Each structure stands twice: as structure tokens, then as C-alpha cells.
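A quick aside before the break. I want you to see a complete sequence-to-structure record at least once, exactly as it would be stored in a machine-readable document. Don't worry about memorizing anything.
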Amino acid sequence: MKIVYICFMLFCLSVVSVNAQVGINNESPHASSALDMAKDGNRSGVLLPRMTTAQKLAIVKPAHSLLVYDTDKNCVSQNIGTETAPVWDCLTLFNRQFFYMPSINIPTGKLGAATLDLFAEYQSQFSTPMYRSVGASASMGNFSASDLYYYITYYDPVLITVNSISATGVMSYTVLKQANKDAYMNIVFVVK
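That is the input. The structure line, written in C-alpha cells, reads:
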């Protein structure tokens, strides 16, 4: 009799489908989801944990793809790194502000090591415009040096080598050869 009972139970378990999906306002969660939330009248959003950048960075071993809302940066932030080496990235596009630096001269007359303060160049060109649209203020708002990330998207490696850019925008470079009129460098600033 015990054998018949065990066979019957094994048969029942093989027929019953066990799902690990959780549905919120949804009795039939999608098979590909772990969590499937449906709209409930006017209550239809997901509220992520809200924390400052310091609180976010203090999370011990944040899981890869962990999401939080960073109240300092006003963005949904995701760990795109690993638990032991987290890399937080702002995902919301309205927070992704970037701009190209207008053309500037990079001194190449003297061969060897040199530095150029990209932030100072930014301040000199963006503080007081020569012209402005009707109704615009006389001066443009400047970011602080620590509000920006600094990128070089192109330079001629035959003429110079970029060695580093500090967190405040000071670029260290080495002049290998004097530039001609066709040489240029693309500098991009991204608002943190």
C-alpha cells in the first residue's frame, strides 16, 4: 500500500507545475518574470530605495544590477560593476548632460611634458558670452570643477600623448611633435 501511495504522490508532483513568479495586482505573472506588477487604478509606479550618493556608496557588496534612486544626482543609479568592485551609473537620460568644449589652442611649441587646465579653459570661454539671445542673462552659469567628468574623445597620437586628466580637469600630456594647422583635440565635459 505504501508503494502505491508513494507512486501516487510522485505522479501528482510531476503533474503539478510550480511557478516562482510573484504577481502584484496580477494573478497570472508572465512566465519570464520573477516579479510582474500590474497597474492598480492610479497607483501604478515602483518606488526604489532613495538615498544620497554617500549612502549608496556605503552599501556593502551591492549586487550587480542593483537599482537605487540617488537623491544627490537625481537619477536612477545601477551597479554595473561587481559586488567587490561596484561601478554606479546614472540611468536616467535627463541627468545626462554633456557638451563639447569650443576649440582651444593646445600649446605644442615646446616638446616634452606639459599640463593644461581644461576646467580653467572652460571657465574662460563659458563665463561671459560675446552675444546672447533676447532675455538671456549676461553671464552663463558655470559648473564647479568637481561637477564635471572630463573626456578626450580624439587627439592625434603622432603629435601628443595624453597621460592623465585629474578629477578637477588638469590634463597632463607630452608633446611628441609640433602640430600643424590640421591637428585638433576633442574635449567633452559630462555633468556628474
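Two observations worth writing down. Residues 111 and 175 are 5 Å apart (CA to CA). Helices lie at 2-15, 53-57, 118-126. We'll return to this after the break.
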